[in-house]
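Chapter summary example.
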Amino acid sequence: MKLVIFDVDGTLVDSQGLIVASMCQAFAEEGLQAPAREAILGIVGLSLDVAMFKLVPEYALAQRVRLVDGYKAAYMHLRASQGAAQSSPFYPGAYEALTRLRARDDVLLGVATGKSRRGLDKLIAGHGLEGYFVTTQVADDHPSKPHPSMIETAMLETGVAAAETVMIGDTSFDMDMAAAAGVTGLGARWGYHDVARLSAASQLIEDFGALDGALEEVWELQS
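The structure predicted for these 223 residues follows.
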């Protein structure tokens, strides 16, 4: 069996509008100027406490905790008002690629995301992806990316070896996590990190139409 693990935000779905709006609201409620859009998108994928420290390391811990709580509240409110699928739409070809891979007898699908369990469950339900992923690793249960724990646990749960496992993500955190776990990392060029930051990727893919070919190339090399 082969295991294909996907990041979520910036890879499967484009949630940047929701993320930026939620972060801006959290900072506004503290009477603070929010970081630049590029800075906010640059920390997507990290666990929230780690992400907030990277954004504003000079702030006191108590204030960062309030910002994290404010972000969570704003995110949940905006998602509820807009709908999970509408606020985090699929990238072109994402759903079709997932459906093709799910139909294969030799492939298992997984998720490794900085989202909470609740957030991932809402997204899966909103997009009708129930039953697509046999293993789902979230920030609630692991150290933040790029620690390899999420990928290692996914492999343990599925019984798939590192040589047959591929991590697909759009950030340096995803690619560094893949490298730390000893698996192949495919970098998504359409996401939130500049391509220059994806140096740890084994290969870069332009869009979901190129994914199947890239996976076959990886598995052929490993065989």
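To summarize the output: The longest strand covers residues 107-112.
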